[in-house]
Amino acid sequence: MTMRECVSSGTTVAAEIIDGEASGVILQYGRRPAMTALAAAVLVSLALLASCDSNSGKPTQTKPEPKPVELLTGRAAFQKCFIAARNYAADVKPFRIESTPSTDSNGHDGKSAIWRASFASAMQHGVKPFIWSGTDAPDAPSRGVSPGNEDTYNPRNASTQIFDVAFLKVDSDQAFNEAQKHGGDKVLEKDPATPVLYICDWNHNTNELTWHVIYGGSREGAKLTVAINASTGAFTRVEK
User: Fold this and answer.
1) 83-105 pLDDT tens trace
2) Cα–chain-centroid distance for residue 91?
């Protein structure tokens, strides 16, 4: 009996040569179902290939580039804070401008990444600082201008002596250049890592607006502090 006679009609036989002999594999479901399964397998393969192609075409996500640190002089930062302070009270007057130490700036060029301007309002009976920041450092305020906490205003308090904005004609970079001529250059020559801070306030003894150029991390522990007239740019005195 031949193999064809042993297999019922409607089935197919696949023959292959194994070790030189013919062996038959009987496909139980006939030619049409086998062809259907083959077509399904081809469709699945095509779908997988299309999926791979679509995924490979997606752009690679990259982290956004960090913003560069922005450094401003005292007057430039003060103007930004002054605009915000006018929203707090229309009658605000400044009484102090000061830079804040940070890892992003050493103050050697009269610029800082963080400035704080404090204002008083007789109408609100309060004082309020506004901070400008140009850095994303973890310990720094958020970029831009942000308000600080309000406190009670006492016009007789010498530490909150207000001044007219018109007196602020000299910027912090000009004050730095003048302070360098009066001992500041020697401090930085001896220790170039020394930070330079700036405070601008009204001197009620001399009745003038003054930039205090501070060579050191704080006013109390400064190596040198030079007073510069904020209206004329002239050297006033060495404070320490």
Assistant:
1) 999 999 999 999 999 999 888 89
2) 32
Tokens encoding 157: 């308090």
The CA-to-CA distance between both ends of the chain, in Å, stands at: 121
Smallest CA-to-CA distance from 230 within 96, 84, 121, 44 is with 96
Q: Stretch 59-74: mean pLDDT, rounded?
A: 83
- With contact defined as beta carbons under 8 Å apart, do 167 and 209 qualify? yes
For the chain, which residues make up each domain, given as ranges?
A: 3-52, 72-238
**Cα–Cα dist 213/219, whole Å:** 9
Q: Are 70 and 113 in contact (CB under 8 A)?
A: yes
Contact at 8 Å (CB) between 11 and 26? yes
Contacts of 107 (CB under 8 A, 6+ apart): 99, 101, 176, 195, 196, 197, 198
Residue pair 127/119 in contact by the 8 Å Cβ criterion: yes
